[in-house]
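The step that takes the researchers longest sounds almost clerical: writing a folded protein down as plain text. Below is the pair of lines this work produces for a single protein:

——
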Amino acid sequence: MRRSFTVFLAVVALFGAVGTVSLLYHPVLAQSRAAVGQPTHQGHADHKPMDVPVIPHESVPNFFKNPPGIYSGENMGIATNSKGNIYIYHRAYETRLFEYAPDGKFIREIGRNNYGFAFAHSVRVDAQDNIWAVDEGTDQLVKFSPDGNRVLMVIGRREDPVAMLANMPGGGVFHGRNEKYRFGRQTDVAFDQQGNIFVPDGYFDARVVKYDKNGRFVKAVGTRGNGNLQFNTPHSIATDFQGNVYVGDRGNARVQVLDNDLNWKANYPNVGNPWGVCVSGGPGPKNPGKQYLFSTNSWPDSAPAAAAEFTGEVYKMELDGTIVGKFGRGGKALGEFATIHQMDCRDPNVIFTAEINNWRSQKILLKPQATTASR
């Protein structure tokens, strides 16, 4: 009887701990109407009214084709390789990574049951077509070979199982511990032409980390706040061919631009809350010529009805932050978006979107030659 009572108390304590953690952790509920201005040289929005051109777009119907019995859940990450294959990292009953042919036909699953998968967040492909899965539940980046059959590198450390008893994957509180080889629910990854690795970290930290091509720590910058080189949920990241780094600072409603050594250069505070950013042209190694920055002001994943009226759009920008145009809105129909979490814009006129609330990804075709003005 005494043993049974002891076990009962232990279970009560465990659930109490879980409850405490859930009370302590409050996700950033960040979303706002995009400002109607271009960035100034000081990085602040010029709020003079302006016409934002609308870029006509269409969604390719039924593009992704799964075999019978294969489903995707919340689509968190999407990326393409140099051959046009597409990778979707999603949360279903378990976290899974699927590969599709350029025509949308399912090819295979990669990495199932590996120790680095628990709570998908994003996926990227580097210049050598290696596949990088970013898992916030295990605090790890997992680099797969182009054929998906080998793990080539792991950065980060999964919490010991005993330490995870009181938390589901991704649970916990902000700690800002700023450790070289550990993360706090990191969110994304990007690469420069030298193969250096850039990681926004994340929900429980507030920094950007740089590693060399071999995974050796180089530098980290950032604390929690709203000043330059401060972050509030650095949620996505991209680089251009010159090595500049673009950070989707979601909670601060801006894109922060850093140089290759992680020094601050500019803020673009005019495109709402950037859930996902990408730069066209791919990760190299060839010079892609003119590049564009895309940023999504996503309808939040909590699906508030009011926010659907002023969120959901994607902005196309020059690399200096000048808005070229926008497309899309919050919604469920084809060509509408319910929480774009990540985009791929290797081709600036073909945008792949991964959506949480719609349990889908879309292939979006842009028609910039037919752009029209809108307010």
